[in-house]
Structures are given as C-alpha cells and as structure tokens.
Amino acid sequence: MGLLLNLGDIVPEFNANSTLGNISWHSWIEGSWAMLISHPANFGGVCTSELAHLAKLSPDYSKRQVKIASLSCDSVEAHQEWIKDIEATPFIVKQPITFPIIEDHNREIATAYGMLDPKAKTKEGLPMGCRAVYIIGPCKTVMLSMLYPASTGRNFEEVLRVIDSLQLTAKFGVNTPANWVPGFKCMVPPNVTDEEATELFGTKVNTMGCRTPSWSLMEVPSQKGYLRLVNDPSVKGRRRSFFATDNLQREGYVAEHFALEQEYLCSFRDLKMHRSSSASTALERYSSI
User: Is 47 a catalytic residue?
Assistant: First the structure.
C-alpha cells in the first residue's frame, strides 16, 4: 500500500496512546512543523539504528521547530522496553529518546496514512508498517512524503536538509537546486519574471559602481534564461559556514562546492564578456555538481 496522502493534503487527525502519554495529533502539532515516521516493528536491527540516529539528531530538529513522532503497531509497553535497547546502542551517543513513539495496535493510523506494507506480515498474519516519512507544515498539510522498503534504513540527516529547503522556500519564495545546503546559491522560481525577481531579491552594487539585480543568470547554449541564481536569502551580509552546522557530515562536498562556486563567480564576468575557455570550463564543472 503506497502513501495515500498527496502534497498539500491536511493530515488525518487521530488520538492515540504513546510513550509520552495520550496524543491528540492536531492539537499536538498545532502551529508547528512536524515529522511523523513509521517503522515495521519494534526490536528490529534497522529500526533500532534509525531511532537511535534520530534521537541523536533530535536537537537539530528542535532548532528548526520540528516536532518528531514515531509510530508502529506494537504496544506502548513494548515501546518502553524497546527504548531501553535503543538508548544502550552506540548509535545514539548518550542522547535519550525525547520524542513519542505512538501505539497503533489496531492499525487505524497506519491505514489512514498509507503506512502499511501489503506484503510484510506478522506471525499472526497481520500487515506490518513500512518505513514512511511525512513532513507536515504549520497548517497541518503534507509538505513532503517518502516511502522506504523494510530493508533500507532512512537517512535523517538528508531529511534535515530537506526540511531546511522546505522552510526556506516557504518563507522566501526561492527554489533550491540539487545537493543544496544552507548558505549556498538558490534559484529563482520559473514562474517569477526577471522584473519580479529584482523586486523580490533586491539589487547590489557591482565593481563598476552600478546597481544591478542581486540575482545572476547562468548562461547555457539554449539561451532560454532559466538558470537564475540568487544568494540564500536567509543569510544576510555574510556567507554561512556549513562546516560546523549541526551533525551533518558533508565537509568533502562542501569544500568542492564552495571552491567551484568561487571559481564560477570569479570567472562569470569573463564568461559574459570574453567567452573565455577557462570560464566556460569553470561553469561546466559548477553546473555538474
């Protein structure tokens, strides 16, 4: 069974018991971002590693005002016993589980959210939960959904990166390109005209002392003018260093991206004025990452 909810749908309400007591879902997430995940069953190796890593990252989710809740078809008593195992693993690095694990013994919540695996069954022949992820916005709508097979653990650092993008684009009206991380170049959405982009993102003074749009055009053979770059609007007056951010381990990628971005920016004027081969090479390399 796939995910039943579409992007923009209001998520179903439910009331359920959890490791932190009874939860009325809509009230619990009121006015906040939230992440609801499901897992096949307690006391599984992949599930244990996932919740341990998620617990380690939970302070980073809190910084983004994202509430976390996990769900499985096991009982609260089983959840409580399982938490002791999770917190004893080396994955968790002495970070306790502070988010609720919800009981869904009758599978009503999993059914409403499309979180059941049609093939995986318990010993009793009942359907098991799959590895689903829902990111929910402050208006209780689905902002993102992902579905993983039971054999593959989720990357909750990548989910953090996606949340950064979702929150940035919701607030500032930009798009984020492939492999984007906070502080790096964003893109002007295709439905925004050049004039609107200048109005939205402002202007800057160039090396000649003239005011120009703060966004820049990356030229490509088609000359269609759709690759428009703009600085991360959440960063004002300085470049944010990503090396010391949260628990994300992207030093190699960041170093390469930063160096190529600088090479591209330094040669952009040559590219426009002289079409130099070195500038074209820099642009090709920058566009490929």
Answer: yes
